[in-house]
From TrEMBL:
It is an enzyme of class 2 (transferase). It catalyses: 4-CDP-2-C-methyl-D-erythritol + ATP = 4-CDP-2-C-methyl-D-erythritol 2-phosphate + ADP + H(+). The lineage of its organism: Bacteria, Bacillati, Actinomycetota, Actinomycetes, Streptosporangiales. Pathway: Isoprenoid biosynthesis; isopentenyl diphosphate biosynthesis via DXP pathway; isopentenyl diphosphate from 1-deoxy-D-xylulose 5-phosphate: step 3/6. PANTHER family: 4-DIPHOSPHOCYTIDYL-2-C-METHYL-D-ERYTHRITOL KINASE, CHLOROPLASTIC. Its EC number is 2.7.1.148. ATP binds at P107, V108, A109, G110, G111, M112, A113, G114, G115, S116, A117. Pfam families: GHMP_kinases_C, GHMP_kinases_N. This is 4-diphosphocytidyl-2-C-methyl-D-erythritol kinase.
Length: 312
């Protein structure tokens, strides 16, 4: 095949419990991931220009980004999709070439793992394009080395991540949950938010707790109970995100005032996520939030959805 396109979802964190800082610079986490129907697409194609042996200046892996939400997405070797393709080639022990096209719909630096999603999609697309036939278990290992959220983008649906979030176990989930996402102007740096979380705890003299999954959250997922799930949403990074971006508090308050079952900062932010009881109610809430100060745009989605999948 000359080109493979893979669709990959965004995630929202239903629970993000942050434990102590580890010696490797990461935190111990309990991270309940939930894949939602906001998708990026990554196409891996065979380059049309001359091969490197005929043109030494030809780059083995190149990337382009399209869409309204490109933001500060790098188009260099720092792009996570490029890193993923290179890691896949290294695992195969051979040299490969590809042109990568990323079509963005997932917010950039918005706490919804858009870069990690693109990395997962690149793994699947290049595995197909290059005819490697590596099993998903191998792709998961490569993904974990690239970033903590990348394995979940491969898996999708709903899962709990432990360690730094890369060790995944699927969770039983009944029914469909309906979401509204308020996208803020600009992004928030994930390392900066974690650093602020550590600073706030130190300032308050509070030791980082040992993270544990919420039994109330697990029960709500099993039963498909949106009301109970809304009450069980939690994010230990939320105080840090609010400290760095105080306007998010107004956005969360507006969603609650307009009847959201649950309101939470997604991951490290600044996207705010609101759970509703139905698709109709999600569209109504989205319309009400569009005029809230600090909201660049508002979108609706549902979950759970599958992880990175080759487009038919």
């Amino acid at each position: 095949m000359s080109a493979i396109t893979v669709r990959v979802p965004a995630k929202v964190n239903l629970q993000l419990a942050v434990g102590p800082l580890r010696d490797d610079g990461y935190h111990d986490l309990v991270n309940v991931f939930h894949a939602v129907s906001l998708f990026d697409e990554v196409t891996a194609a065979e380059p049309l220009d001359p091969a490197p042996e005929r043109d030494p200046s030809a780059a083995p892996l190149r990337v382009r980004v399209e869409g309204d939400l490109t933001g500060e997405v790098p188009v260099s070797d720092d792009n996570l999709a490029v890193r993923a393709a290179r890691a896949l080639a290294d695992r195969a022990g051979r040299s490969y070439r590809a042109d990568l096209l990323i079509r963005k719909s997932i917010p950039v630096a918005g706490g919804m793992a858009g870069g990690s999603a693109d990395a997962a999609a690149a793994l699947v697309a290049c595995n197909e394009l290059w005819g490697l036939g590596l099993p998903v278990e191998d792709l998961m290992e490569i993904a974990a080395d690239i970033g903590s959220d990348v394995p979940f983008a491969l898996l999708g649906d709903t899962a709990v991540g432990t360690g730094r979030g890369e060790r995944l176990a699927p969770l039983e989930t009944a029914g469909v949950f309906h979401w509204v996402f308020a996208l803020a102007d600009g992004g928030l740096s994930t390392p900066r938010v974690y650093g602020e979380c550590d600073r706030l705890r130190e300032e308050a003299g509070v030791a980082a707790p040992t993270p544990a999954v919420s039994e109330a959250l697990l029960a709500a997922l099993r039963e498909g109970d949106a009301t109970a799930l809304g009450q069980a949403l939690s994010n230990d990074l939320q105080p840090a995100a609010l400290a760095l971006r105080p306007s998010l508090a107004d956005t969360l308050a507006a969603g609650r005032e307009h009847g959201a079952l649950g309101a939470i900062v997604s991951g490290s932010g600044p996207t705010c996520a609101f759970l509703t009881e139905s698709a109709e109610r999600a569209h109504e809430l989205a319309a009400l939030l569009k005029d809230v100060d600090g909201c660049r745009s508002v979108v609706t989605a549902h979950g759970p959805v599958p992880g990175a999948t080759v487009a038919g």
